[in-house]
């Protein structure tokens, strides 16, 4: 799914600024399954505006500049529904942590252990900020529960594997020192 479509989805929840849309990806309901930067959100909003799928209003001045508030138009609602009716693409996991861990044998053991612990802490943090909520519509409740279960499961797996990983990395470091 492209950023334009997900922006339409965010706006279906209510009017929002580009900043507020970005927050839904950083620490909001999309934080565990979709990422979008300002560099992709604002061009997407510009295209949606040009296509008549969103409208733009300026909010009351607050602070340094006028806020641009985007709203979903009827055409935007129709485009969102059409996009959501299409079969989704295949899920892909992109993780720099997993790349680092895959090649952990090539780096200093202390660095590999730090990366491991950082990744574990990330999963524990995400599980804590993604508690299960029953007050959501059915689809949102499933996605929320999925995120909660995913992070709790991954944190549990990482905790189970930690001692063996740390021990093996320390042993590898000792073996390397002995060979030098």
Summarize the structure in words.
This protein has 180 residues and is mainly α. The chain folds into two domains: 3-85, Winged helix-like DNA-binding domain superfamily/Winged helix DNA-binding domain (Arc Repressor Mutant, subunit A, Orthogonal Bundle), CATH 1.10.10.10; 96-179. 63% of the residues lie in helices and 6% in strands. It has a two-stranded antiparallel ribbon. It is elongated. The chain starts with a helix and ends with a helix.
Task: Give, in spatial order, the strands making up the sheet with the most strands.
Answer: 1-2
Question: What is the molecular shape?
Answer: elongated
- How large is the radius of gyration? 21 Å
- Which class do the helix and strand fractions yield? mainly alpha
Distance between the termini: 51 Å
Q: Report the sheet with the most strands, covering strand number, pairing sense and barrel closure.
A: 2 strands, antiparallel
Q: Bin the helical content.
A: 55-70%
Mean pLDDT: 89
Total individual domains: 2
How many separate helices? 7
Sequence of secondary-structure elements: HHHEEHHHH
Instruction: Tell me what portion of residues adopts beta-strand conformation.
Output: 5-15%
Number of strands: 2
Low-confidence stretches: none
